Amino acid sequence: MTLPIGISIPHAGLEVPAEVRDRCRLAENDIRDDGDGGAAEIYGSFKKYVAEFMSTNIARAVIDLNRSPDDFRKDGVVKTHTCWDVPVYRTYPDPDTISTLLKKYYHPYHAALTGFSGKAAVGIDCHTMAAVGPPVGPDPAQARPPACLSNADGTCPDSWLVSLGACLEQTLERKVSLNHPFRGGYIIRVHGNEMPWIQLEFSRDRYLSEREKSVRLLAALRLWCRKTF
Fold first, then answer.
1. Nearest-CA neighbor of 66 among 74, 82, 57, 78?
2. Fewer CB near the last or first residue (10 Å), C or N of the chain?
3. Domain 3-228: what homologous superfamily?
């Protein structure tokens, strides 16, 4: 049975594109630490179970797909520093290079998410989060829950969020937080104008293996879809 869900995995990539490879100063571990470790393992197999699926191999430290295209803050779409406050570039990209990055990697991803509308009943933007909040974040140095669901105060009905949270708690056998520490990022906010969207964050704490998190999430999604659609 194909679930009526569209899956987005914006932060699983580790590749630094050729356009900025010579000026990027990040070591491999810096790129990995800034991304959503384990996301590919948890969510990557879902392509065969859902109506729509989109991911990327580009590192979040270079192009953050969960930011507005005009967000050029420190932790914006083309960052100056990682979420751990590590400088990304020896020389920050010039405007033409930034334009190329957005054209090649950012805009096609969002066009694909827009294409979910009419093909899926709900989109789920899938992430992993550090077990303790990093310096750049809503909760620096704070311990985080095993999982967090968010709807940015309206990108899907609150009843859906509560119901999915209950299904995930049942299969995880752990507490799931709603709208804390994350309330929902740019992807669900902008594409929530096209169709319902939910943001999902799994803690990278090793309370379960990535494989087991994937199995239990799939069970929760199947249970939730039977109740909701």
1. 78
2. N
3. Zn-dependent exopeptidases (3.40.630.40)
* Contact between residue 96 and residue 87 where contact means Cβ atoms under 8 Å apart: no
Provide the token pair at 129. Answer: 């989060």
How many separate helices (H) and strands (E) can be counted in the chain?
7, 6
With a cut of 50, which residues of the chain have pLDDT below it?
A: none
Residue the block writes with tokens 């010579």:
22
The set of residues, in sequence order, having a beta carbon less than 8 Å from that of 226 and lying 6+ positions away, is none
Provide the residue ranges of all domains of the chain, joining segments of one domain with +.
3-228
- Kindly state the tokens that stand for 16: 């630094």
What is each CA distance from 129 to 52, 90, 104, 135, 201, in whole angstroms? 23, 27, 26, 13, 6
* SS3 (DSSP) at 129: strand
User: Counting Cβ atoms within 10 Å, is residue 189 exposed (0-12), middle (13-18) or buried (19+)?
Assistant: buried
To which H or E segment does residue 113 belong? Answer: helix 107-114
pLDDT value of position 1: 83
**Which segments of 78-184 does DSSP mark as H helices, in order?**
95-101, 107-114, 158-172
pTM attached to this predicted model: 0.96
